[in-house]
Design goal:
alpha+beta, BirA Bifunctional Protein, domain 2, Rossmann fold, 9-stranded mixed beta sheet, 5-stranded mixed beta sheet, binds histidyl-adenosine monophosphate
Amino acid sequence: MKDISTEPYKGVRDFYPEDMSTQNYLFGKMRKVAESFGYNEYGASVLEPAELYRAKSGEEIVNEQTYTFTDRGERQVTLRPEMTPTVARMVAAKKQELAFPLRWYSIPNLFRYEKPQRGRVREHWQLNVDIFGCVGAEAEIEIISMASQIMREFGLKDADFEIRLNSRKIMNYILNDLMSLDEETAHKISKLIDKKQKISKQDFDLSIEEVIPGKATEFLTLINSKNFEEFVAKLPKSQEVVEKIDELKEVMARLEKLGITNTVFDQTLMRGLDYYDGIVFEVFDKNPENSRAVFGGGRYDNLLSIFGGEKVPAVGFGMGDVVIKNILETYKILPAYKPEAELYICVMKKDYYEYAQEIAQKLREDGVKVAIDFSGRKIGDQIKTADKQKIPNIICIGEDEMKSGQFKVKNLKSGEEKAATLETLKSCVK
Ligand code: HAM
């Protein structure tokens, strides 16, 4: 029989302790900021009925990216590719009992059948932060402020990243009213806009020409505007349009007042998911090494109506673990790995194991993290293990130590040695 491969399934990651420690660091910062804004954590199963995504997640996710299977009871089941439909389902299910506005967060693992590449894997973790029950721009401002605060919390400067904004209302107006496109054509164009950054200008222009031959020039001059002012100047000045533009301007101006000045308008920002219906945004590292969005989100006031009943206004974002890790590596601001054990007890002989365990127990009760070497190997080899595992301090237990209760604590990095008793050991390793 052929040996079974030790490789993980394509596009997913194993988390060895060093990777897990990084992951916990990322999650810790995400949690800290979400909770500082008063958001409460929720969770759900990775399994969902497949139909949950058919309504509004968008063709790309549903047809090309989901892991869907039929269970033993002939039900179509999907491994969740995103958390928004799940949280929407949960909120809709208890709408009568919940006290709005809800401020909820979660860090789920999500599954998407994508081509694995830098910043894209098949199982990723995503911080999801959503506020339900707020119709005003305060919701967008709070959600975008939190995204900015998370980047700062990781040690990034505002000059390092950019918050790109657009409005689905403006884009829908352009496609449906201004250009009078039917639903299918409008959908095709919005998917092309979504791909614009990934293809050449020539290919983009040609594809637009193919889909809307008579209207391509008008559309391209608009979509190729150099900035917000130029874009706005090309739109009609009707009250309807002015209102939509003002909404976006208000959010940007109020973020600026809060000290968030790294926002930019981007008329090519569509967001692939179909449920967004207001302001949408994405956060990008400015370093070209990381070309993928680290955050993506927006307003989706109509998603909850797929469950029947009244709609519930909602704004939120998803932030991916893979992209933020890449960014922190690029800026060299990921903290170095530290193992849990602060002290490693090397033991000269089997006869001293019991004593080593007693010491370890006392130290643990006192809050010191301790591991004992029970290998029976030479002391030199035991020390090598501690060093390889990056444990910072060791003590060795032999006859002298047992009799005297006096230890020598060695710091493996500096080589420094300190004399200690059981009472003073803690202060030597902390
Ligand atoms: P999304 O834009 O699909 O939005 O994903 C949000 C973020 O998750 C991306 O910007 C990226 O950092 C990360 N991400 C997505 N797919 C992958 C992947 N295959 N590998 C690694 N990272 C990935 C949503 O999922 C929305 N449901 C977010 C949301 C929450 N909107 C409102 N509330």
